[in-house]
Design brief:
mainly alpha; three-stranded parallel β-sheet; 32% helix; globular
Length: 160
């Protein structure tokens, strides 16, 4: 979303998502990296996101990466709220930077979203030669349709 992603992994990401049954487009990916490692500026990222949100051919927006700066897109989304409300709902998938976008689509558009692994960091994308493991490397790509239909339950979780 805001932090640059490894463009060399896009074919692998696309392949894994397609193998899982998703139709994938790279139409809304546009990475111009700043000196600080961020993608484009807020306006450019917002414009790409809004275009994807308005595209009736899109059912799921799965973020390649999180990072920082998603909150900066909220004013642009708010300006387009009436147009977005008339768009076909999409399911957003991602976490980290994407959390602010989840909040917007949940609260203002009443769309569902899934706070889950991003497309580039998950068990299915883990390089077998990489010995460093992050928590994301343990989570497989979720089956969005099943989760939306049946929900998720956790065993042995004790509420605070």
């Amino acid at each position: 979303m805001s932090t640059q992603y490894d463009e060399q992994k896009l074919d692998k990401i696309k392949g894994k998502l397609e193998k899982a049954g998703y139709k994938v487009t790279e139409k809304y990916l546009d990475q111009v990296v700043s000196d600080f490692g961020y993608v484009n500026n807020d306006y450019s990222r917002a414009k790409k996101l809004i275009n994807a949100l308005l595209d009736d051919n899109i059912e799921v927006i799965w973020f390649v990466r999180g990072g920082g700066g998603g909150f900066n897109l909220i004013p642009y989304l708010y300006e387009e709220m009436e147009r977005l409300k008339s768009a076909k709902p999409k399911v957003l998938v991602g976490f980290s930077d994407v959390t602010a976008i989840h909040s917007f689509v949940n609260e203002y558009l009443k769309w569902e979203s899934l706070h889950s692994v991003v497309a580039s960091y998950n068990k299915d994308m883990k390089d077998p030669d990489d010995i460093a493991i992050s928590i994301n490397d343990l989570e497989p790509l979720p089956n969005i349709a099943n989760i939306l239909k049946s929900g998720i339950s956790y065993k042995n979780v004790i509420p605070p």
